[in-house]
Design goal:
The chain is α/β, with parallel strands linked by helices. It has a domain at 528-665: ANL, C-terminal domain (GMP Synthetase, Chain A, domain 3, 2-Layer Sandwich). 32% of the residues lie in helices and 23% in strands. The protein is built from 21 helices and 31 strands. Helix 4 (86-95) runs parallel beside helix 11 (321-333). The protein binds adenosine-5'-monophosphate-propyl ester (PRX). Adenosine-5'-monophosphate-propyl ester is lined by residues 275, 321-322, 397-400, 422-427, 448, 508-510, 522, 524-525, 531, 535-536.
């Protein structure tokens, strides 16, 4: 994280009390109540989680044991012996508890006129048909189904159909390109892939099925591909006996064909979702059914103070964990109305979000700081045209929200009175971990406030430098297991253990500090991840792609501060001898990453260098490269460990030229 941003967070002193109006009806209505629940959860974690699981979910069979720890490998099993089904909890039970004709899913297409709404009954019908359809393709309990789909209702339906069967879905963000998709399908050994002909993005048709075809040549596990006809593309290549159109496949199943829910064990895997780790290979995070679903429902209810008549909108793409937990599983488990939007906030005009809030009378709006920053820049005139008075709670996720964006969000969207729940969590944690409760906690802009009840977070000192100070900062860790925690890393137990090995407890990979009032301030990743617009990317993955270019010798990728994205990608690249630096090569390298991982991972800047700064043992000093990328030249720290300190001035000069927009000059450096 940038020094500037850390400094602005450290100097932020304002605070905001929770609104009085709404407190009495809130799930948790005061700081005292929050503290007393924390106390109870701390004294009797199993009692606390068991009670929440029983209150929030329908169990076909109760568990024998809330938590079983196999402490040697840090393996934790939740609700052992319990039986349930996620589709039953997210749909079927609402058909008999008065919500049958309530809107479960409201979908706004990219085209304003394109809206679809599914009641719980309608969702049930579609999910049963798709479960039958997948079953006809021999998808069975435990099989993996990859979902490479845009933000269309079929994505939610497919997830719940897998859950109904007991198949494990593994979503792949539709913005990923070849390498990202290939590694995920190969790792999960998916039997079926569900995709669409194309995604609609800012008025353009972006093919998906055509991207997938060459990838599938290298994925022998895939027996079938189901294709949703989203964009009515012509000439979509369909391979005989492998590919089938979604509408043709479900056509065989009538509207009243129930598909019974498979009674699953609480410890079965509900889904697999890959995230960027510290290596070049994505980490296949597994979430268990009982623990994850309990945690999703639990946090959705408390953090968003969800009530039965709320219209709730989480803007995250369902290809990421936020979309899984807070657009699908959490709200549907609670029987809420969840809004889903296919488009981008700025197309055709930067008013899409405000328009949707007005149109559907959204009460709870959960988005990312990068979105707030980009809309903030385009001026308040876009917000003033709309009636946003239905809003009750705002939320933020993905990266620390800088005080400027917080203040804008609070003032122009939140009428200077709505709580903003800043939620810190990760793919691995399943749901929010450190987050404000909207009617209980006083807010400080930029702080995710306190750990939720039952979450035993703390900070382990990074160094002793800060000794003697009142504040603590260091590694953010979680001491006790919680139901939403990942169950494992798919076919990689060693990787799973690596989260626990250093401290013997869960290590988040983030740095944080706790202020004198106990507020948590997240300071960004400590490991080699970059957080671009709230999306975690691995530096190693990008370096692997860059070094695959025949002219590239070495690559070192680091984050640099960026006004809109929070962090942007900065790549230092050395070339083989006799390969000249050129603008063309720079474009080629960007395109390579764009093609292989996706546009999100494409470096903002590529700086060609003669040499990377290395230690005598040959280790690249990324810390220094990070500082240079952030223009903090005077803060490079101890340069004596460099094998050749003379490389630094040339790198700094090259960086300055690049920033000044004269990259051609540094080719002479
Ligand atoms: O660095 C933290 C940052 O996002 C990382 C997790 O990324 P991912 O697994 O992709 O999940 C993103 C959505 C939950 C964290 O390690 N992060 C997430 N939320 C916040 C945050 N940093 C600061 N404040 C947050 N509210």
């Amino acid at each position: 994280m940038s020094q500037e941003r850390i400094t602005s967070l450290l100097t932020e002193k304002r605070s905001y009390l929770p609104p009085e109006h709404g407190k009495s009806a809130a799930w948790i209505g005061s700081q005292e109540e929050y503290e007393s629940i924390c106390q109870h959860a701390n004294d009797d974690p199993e009692g606390f989680w068991g009670a929440r699981a029983a209150q929030l979910l329908h169990w076909f069979r109760p568990w024998n044991k809330v938590l079983q720890s196999g402490s040697e490998n840090f393996e934790y099993q939740w609700f052992v012996g319990g039986k349930l089904n996620a589709a039953y909890n997210c749909i079927d039970r609402h058909l008999i508890n008065g919500r049958r004709n309530k809107a479960a899913l409201i979908w706004q297409g990219e085209n304003e006129m394109n809206v679809r709404c599914y009641t719980y009954q309608m969702l049930y019908t579609e999910v049963c048909r798709v479960a039958h359809a997948l079953s006809s393709l021999r998808v069975r309990k435990g099989d993996r189904v990859a979902l490479y789909m845009p933000m269309i209702p079929e994505l939610v339906i497919a997830m719940l159909a897998c859950a109904r069967i007991g198949a494990i879905h593994t979503a792949i963000f539709s913005g990923y390109a070849e390498g990202g998709v290939l590694s995920r399908i190969q790792d999960s050994k998916a039997k079926v892939v569900i995709t669409a002909d194309a995604a609609m993005r800012a008025g353009k048709v972006k093919p998906l099925k055509a991207n997938l075809d060459p990838i599938l040549e290298k994925c022998p596990s895939v027996a079938h591909v189901v294709v949703v006809n989203r964009a009515r593309m012509e000439n979509v290549a369909m391979k005989r006996n492998r590919d089938v159109w979604w509408h043709d496949l479900i056509d065989d199943f009538t509207l009243d064909a129930d598909f019974p829910c498979e009674p699953m064990s609480a410890t079965d895997t509900l889904f697999l979702l890959h995230t960027s780790g510290s290596t070049g290979k994505p980490t296949g995070v597994m979430h268990s059914l009982g623990g994850y679903l309990t945690y999703a429902a639990h946090t959705t209810q408390w953090v968003f103070d969800m009530r039965d008549d709320d219209v709730y909108w989480c803007t995250a793409d369902i290809g990421w964990i936020t979309g899984h937990t807070y657009a699908v599983y959490g709200p549907l488990a609670l029987g809420a109305t969840t809004v889903m939007f296919e488009g981008v906030p700025t197309w055709p005009n930067p008013d899409r979000y405000w328009r949707i809030i007005e149109k559907f009378r959204v009460n709870i709006f959960y988005t990312a700081p990068t979105v707030v920053r980009s809309l903030m820049r385009l001026g308040v005139a876009w917000t003033e045209r709309y009636d946003l008075s239905s809003l009750r709670i705002l939320g933020s996720v993905g990266e620390p929200i800088n005080p400027e964006a917080w203040t804008w969000f609070h003032k122009y969207i939140g009428r200077e009175e709505l709580p903003i729940v800043d939620t810190w969590w990760q793919t691995e944690t399943g749901g929010a971990m450190i987050a404000a409760l909207p009617y209980a906690n006083k807010l400080k802009p930029g702080s995710a406030t306190f750990p939720l009840p039952g979450i035993d977070a703390t900070i382990i000192q990074q160094s002793t430098e800060e000794d003697g100070e009142q504040e603590q900062r260091g590694y953010l860790v979680i001491r006790k297991p919680w139901p939403g925690m990942m169950q494992g890393v798919f076919q990689n137990p060693q990787k799973y253990r690596s989260y626990f090995e250093r401290f013997g407890i869960y290590e988040s990979g983030d740095g944080a500090r706790i202020d004198e009032e106990g507020y948590y301030w997240i300071l960004g990743r400590i490991d080699d991840s970059i957080n671009v617009s709230g999306h975690r990317l691995s530096t190693a993955e990008i370096e692997t792609v860059l070094t695959a270019h025949p002219q590239v010798g070495e690559a070192a990728v680091v984050p640099m501060p960026h006004d809109l994205k929070g962090e942007a990608i900065y790549a230092y690249v050395t070339l083989h001898e006799d390969c000249p630096w050129s603008e063309e090569l720079r474009t080629d390298l960007r395109n390579l990453v764009r093609r292989d991982i996706g546009p999100l991972a494409s470096p903002e800047y590529i700086q060609f260098v003669e040499n990377l700064p290395k230690t005598c043992s040959g280790k690249t000093l990324r810390r220094m490269l990070r500082k240079i990328a952030g223009s903090a030249y005077s803060d490079l720290g101890d340069t004596t460990s460099l094998a050749s300190p003379a490389v630094l001035p040339a790198i700094i000069q090259g960086h300055q030229n690049l920033m000044a927009g004269h990259p051609e000059q540094y080719t002479d450096a």
